[in-house]
Amino acid sequence: RDGNGGGLYMHDSSSRIQDTIVQDNQSIATCISKIQDGSMSVVCAGGDGAGLYVEASSPSISGSTVKANEGFGDGHLNSNVPLDTQPDGAVIFATGSDLNILGSEFSGNTANEVCVVVLGVQICNGGEGGGLLLDDSSLTMEDTTISGNSAEDGGGLSLQGVSEADLSGCTIKENVAIDDGGGILLNDTSV
Asked: pTM score > 0.85 for this model?
């Protein structure tokens, strides 16, 4: 997919990220629209993981800072598919992965919603998980701070699908969501 992993793109990897700063990166969705057989669809790709995009991987992140990164939406904006079932832009986006995070900081990151106008109709999607968004992934996080992040939903942390999270000694503060889950948004998830 286009526009994913502004700072780091990780696929099928078990990398270790230690004492690293991931800062001032962007991921931007690209959208196209088409009309076929009288039906309109808009498809957007990319925009996930402004700081890190993690797919089918098992990274270990320790002593690192992820800050001031900005993601601009994602999803498959299709008139036949419910918008709320689509993946969304996030600063760290993980799908089908197992993340271990220790003594790190996620601050001042933003996941923005992307809107397109087709034939005078505005369609918006994305903007979920300002600090982290996990989809069908697991998370073990210790002694980590998630603060000052913003998104449409899940300002600090958004957990989707069958994600499991084990948080210990973490601080989640001063995150903002325009709609739901300023600190943490849980959707079909166990913590």
From this structure: no
